[in-house]
């Protein structure tokens, strides 16, 4: 591994904002079990969760638009400017959910407010992923990029952990009636305020050298669809390699708590604690796996994930559906998340390494957002649909099938570890033979 230093200020600056972004994004899902009844009429509990899951999925379908608009913005105005804009949008959307009126007060208008807020969140996150991925990748020397960029999922998971941690605190300090009545609004207020603070933090970040170099040399064609189409093979590759990873990730993260509660029959508090502990260990694994990819390459980790997810999903999810306590749930959840680490720890850097600087943010943002809209955002809804239809195991095979498609891509794609992201790196690459 290269002895180049990791720029911790840049990593921290990007990660803290990313953490707040994803806290706001995931807290909707983790608190849905409490506010579902607030926005829909009385009925079957699974049906209410289906309604809130559908609204959760709506946000994903806004992500391609956010990926296009904010990816273009990041390529034309800079990574720093895009990071600042995305966290501003997220703060506004969290505040909107916090003040949304209930069904009892205004009928379905409250649900409409949720939809609008999720659309804003989708727009924001659609650009956040790419801006963060490109910033962390470009700001780090070659040979440490896998390690540094892994903090994107460290921060994403940290955001979810903060949300789950707050949920545990509220569960133990408030009655179920109070949580369902007004307590679920608290995390959205916290998210809105935290995002406002991060807005000022991100304004102090420095722009990346790779972007500054590109900006000095050309101002035409940066971040355009025409430029992206010139790299359509790479764009299609991003969609295909994301497919299996995003479905598996949302299965073992956002859907896991509901699955343990609805199917395994664990108490909501126990299911939440299982998710919290498993995700904490998962978060700690990301830099280790990212650093490993700097030594052995990106493809070995992706291939390991693909095989593990394709073969292991059905038995793991079946076993999780029958767990009877905290210990069994934690062990099985960890096995799934360890497999997923082969994808999450490096997927951001792999995508960024596929594209040249002038279209890197858009190249990462739009194809990734499309893949998430089609597969990641619908994963929870598909899972609940299978359950409601009485064939819950069908979802497990669906996850395995998506992983199988991505595995084919992992086996055939080129290694990206030694890709040069700037002309300075290209000059160094030409003078030093690439590692085998």
From TrEMBL:
SUPFAM superfamilies: MFS general substrate transporter. The chain crosses the membrane at residues 21-40, 52-70, 82-100, 106-130, 151-170, 182-201, 235-252, 272-289, 301-320, 326-350, 362-383, 395-413. Gene3D superfamilies: MFS general substrate transporter like domains. Residues 10-418 form the Major facilitator superfamily (MFS) profile domain. It is found in: Cell membrane. Keywords: Cell membrane, Membrane, Symport, Transmembrane, Transmembrane helix, Transport. It is a multi-pass membrane protein. PANTHER family: ALPHA-KETOGLUTARATE PERMEASE, PROLINE_BETAINE TRANSPORTER. This is MFS transporter. It comes from Nonomuraea maheshkhaliensis. The lineage of its organism: Bacteria, Bacillati, Actinomycetota, Actinomycetes, Streptosporangiales.
């Amino acid at each position: 591994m290269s002895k180049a230093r990791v720029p911790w200020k840049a990593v921290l600056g990007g990660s803290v904002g990313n953490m707040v972004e994803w806290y706001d994004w995931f807290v909707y899902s983790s608190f849905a079990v409490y506010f579902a009844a607030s926005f829909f009429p009385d009925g079957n509990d699974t049906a209410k969760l289906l309604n809130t899951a559908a609204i959760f999925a709506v946000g994903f379908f806004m992500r391609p638009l956010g990926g296009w608009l904010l990816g273009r913005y990041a390529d034309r105005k800079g990574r720093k400017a895009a990071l600042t804009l995305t966290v501003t949008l997220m703060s506004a959307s969290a505040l909107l959910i916090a003040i949304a009126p209930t069904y009892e007060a205004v009928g379905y208008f409250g649900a409409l407010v949720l939809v609008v807020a999720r659309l804003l969140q989708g727009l924001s996150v659609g650009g956040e992923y790419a801006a963060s991925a490109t910033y962390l990748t470009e700001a780090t020397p070659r040979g440490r990029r896998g390690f540094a960029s892994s903090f994107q999922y460290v921060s994403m998971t940290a955001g979810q952990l903060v949300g789950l941690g707050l949920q545990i605190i509220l569960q133990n300090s408030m009655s179920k009636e109070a949580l369902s009545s007004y307590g679920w609004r608290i995390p959205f207020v916290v998210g809105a305020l935290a995002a406002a603070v991060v807005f000022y933090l991100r304004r102090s970040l420095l722009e990346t050298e790779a972007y500054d170099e590109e900006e000095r040399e050309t101002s035409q064609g940066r971040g355009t669809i025409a430029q992206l189409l010139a790299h359509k093979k790479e764009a299609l590759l991003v969609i295909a390699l994301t497919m299996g990873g995003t479905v598996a990730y949302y299965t073992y993260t956002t859907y896991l708590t509901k699955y343990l509660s609805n199917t395994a029959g664990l108490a909501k508090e126990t299911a939440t604690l299982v998710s919290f502990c498993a995700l904490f260990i998962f978060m700690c694994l990301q830099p280790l796996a990212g650093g490993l990819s700097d030594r052995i390459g990106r493809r070995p980790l992706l291939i390991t994930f693909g095989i593990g997810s394709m073969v292991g999903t059905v038995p793991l999810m079946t076993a999780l559906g029958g767990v009877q306590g905290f210990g069994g749930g934690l062990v099985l959840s960890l096995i799934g998340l360890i497999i997923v680490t082969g994808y999450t720890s490096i997927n951001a850097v792999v995508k960024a390494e596929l594209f040249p600087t002038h279209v890197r943010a858009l190249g990462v943002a739009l194809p990734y957002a499309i893949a998430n809209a089609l597969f990641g955002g619908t994963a929870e809804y598909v899972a609940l649909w299978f359950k409601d239809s009485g064939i819950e195991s069908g979802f497990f095979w669906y996850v395995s099938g998506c992983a199988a498609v991505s595995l084919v891509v992992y086996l055939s794609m080129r290694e990206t570890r030694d890709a040069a992201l700037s002309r300075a790196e290209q000059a160094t690459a030409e003078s030093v033979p690439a590692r085998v």
